[in-house]
Design a protein that fits this description.
The protein has 408 residues and is mainly α. The protein has 20 helices and no strands.
Amino acid sequence: MALRNRTALTNIVNQENVKNVKSSVTTVAGKTRRAALGEIGNKVNTLRGIEPVDRTSLLTKDKKKITVPKQAIKPPEKLNEKLPVQIVKPVVKVTASQETNEVSLPSKKEIQSFSSNLLEIEDIDEEDKENPSLVSIYSNNIYEYLRILESMYPISEGYLSEQEVTPKMRSVLIDWLVDVHQQFHLMQETLYLTVATIDRFLQAFRSIDRKRLQLVGVTAMFIASKYEEMYSPDINDFVYITDNAYSKVEILQMEMLIVKTLDYSFGRPLPLHFLRRYSKAGKALPIHHTLAKYFLEQSLVHYEMCHYPPSLIAAAAIYLAFLIYSNDDEDEQKVVWTNTLAHYSTYSKDDVFPVVRETASIIINVDKIKYQAVRKKYAHVKYMKISTRPELKSALLNTIATADKEAV
């Protein structure tokens, strides 16, 4: 009987909904069970009235809206005559290129947006497209960003002027850090970041005296090792390497000073980053790449090279490596700085060659200077004994050091 009474009540409520909407909302909310979103449906019904919604009228209204664009689309048959100028012609090129297998040429021209010399520029990332770890799609954008970063953190020429620290002191420090770097078996990037940190700090903080210069160098390598290494040396190792000239507390205090002075920014790109890209663009052999690395580390020691951007020093190093050790073909000897290298490095031959001459003059005088850490390092079998090669003592290197840019 209770169930029958409930059904009777619901029937009465439904009749009341038809007669009076306001009463149905109050009574039904308290007595009957609504479905999901039922209240939303009630609100719609109260706005539209008691009568059911005429869905066919809504469809006709929508059809009127649709038919108007259809009438507007009919005249665009005339517009289709204008569209082929922008859309149809590229489609015709694609179909023709599918028959001749020349689809890639127009796409490269549109993406790179260069002159007619694009036909001589190779896509060095084409073979790496199937390797996701090399992110070949983003390679060009990454190196553009690195060039922006190196312009954000420049090192001015002659920044040690009017300071107690002299260029000779700096060279002695870097030469000693090369030995320390080898003793700790650190990564190559750690050495380059150490030197960059020293130069940037000495440029910004101009009150370092000669007694604290070694402390700056050790602390810079301590910071760089924590930035680059998987397992950086302990701070006690750096205390030991200085023969207890500085305490652990002094290194930590200098670390805080360097980090604050450089505003916690250690993302300045290194010459190694660009050298790997240039070696790939120039199809360098292992001997070319190792020669270029030898030139780069020699440039780290010499103060007169520190103001050049990392990308330019790397370009000069690989250029000089190609000049010194070239293949037997005469055609390859004539064209050293190809269009592909100029494209990916963004430097022309005129931009690179002055730095090439300075690098060549440094290599010529290696035997005459006191800083021999880099030379001894690259005399090892691990580095192909590159510093002992006869090409570094040839007459060609002397002519490069004194030649004009048109001679090579």
